[in-house]
Design brief:
About 30% of the residues lie in helices and about 30% in strands. The radius of gyration is 40 Å and the shape is elongated.
Length: about 260
């Protein structure tokens, strides 16, 4: 083989190698178009998901115990900022609606001393005094607890509701802008069957008890008063239109009637 033939073959091999390299580079560029990253190394789609999550505001509430005995009770409330909420979202206040079957006596034992409370009608509001005390997800600022002290007279299961806001406690009007993601809230009141029915005494018995309490002597004078009380009753032993089982009002009406007839 001549020197010229060898040189020709060498040049052909070099051209083939260069062509193959260029083809590989082009393929790499085409395939890399879909995996371009930001300067931080996070893909644009991941960045978009993170930025979208910043507007998420989720919270939940629990009320315990789920069942109380009729009468006086303390309901323990826990408000929790959901971990899925955006890092910039800070829960500043919450309102809990207490059903009308409960009478709210007070709010106590707030776990964060920089939060305060107030009651308007059947609504309890608890919130941060200052912006730096909101629930922002950092250590010690994920949840807040407090007690609602109530009384009840009726048995049944009653629903509670809750709403939350970025604003602090003192901001009015309250503007809820958080999404409730917890379970449905309810408290069951039991034990009504254990309360003895009131003794529905008729007017003469009520009048005699009162006269005994003031040491009014027996005799014609006492008999005359009891007789007037009896004649003042109407059908169903009502007195001034009041049913005898409305014990307090009935007793007050009878006593007032008796007092008006006591000798001076």
């Amino acid at each position: 083989m001549t020197n010229k033939s060898v040189e020709t073959m060498r040049r052909s091999s070099l051209a083939a190698a260069v062509g193959f390299g260029l083809a590989l580079a082009a393929a790499a560029c085409d395939g890399g178009a879909s995996t371009a990253t930001s300067p931080s190394g996070v893909s644009p789609s991941s960045l978009a998901a993170q930025n979208g999550g910043q507007s998420t505001r989720n919270f939940s509430v629990t009320v315990t115990p789920p069942s109380v005995t009729v009468g006086t009770a303390t309901l323990h409330v826990t408000v929790t900022r959901d971990a899925a909420s955006g890092q910039s979202q800070q829960l500043g206040s919450v309102e809990v609606y207490v059903p009308g079957e409960f009478s709210i006596q007070s709010v106590s034992n707030i776990s964060n001393t920089n939060w305060t409370s107030g009651v308007t009608g059947q609504t309890v509001r608890v919130g941060a005094v200052g912006g730096n005390q909101k629930l922002d997800g950092s250590a010690g600022h994920v949840s807040v607890t407090f007690d609602i002290n109530v009384t009840s007279t009726q048995c049944g299961t009653y629903k509670f509701t809750a709403q939350a806001s970025n604003s602090t406690y003192s901001t009015d009007p309250f503007s809820p802008n958080w999404t409730y993601t917890g379970s449905a809230l309810s408290v069951t009141v039991t034990g009504c069957d254990d309360i003895p029915a009131p003794e529905c005494k008729a007017a003469p018995a009520v009048a005699n008890e009162y006269l005994d309490n003031i040491d009014f002597p027996g005799g014609p004078g006492r008999g005359a008063i009891i007789n007037q009380v009896s004649r003042h009753m109407t059908q169903g032993a009502k007195f001034d239109g009041i049913d005898p089982c409305d014990v307090a009002a009935y007793r007050a009406a009878v006593i007032a009637f008796v007092i008006a007839r006591l000798p001076v």
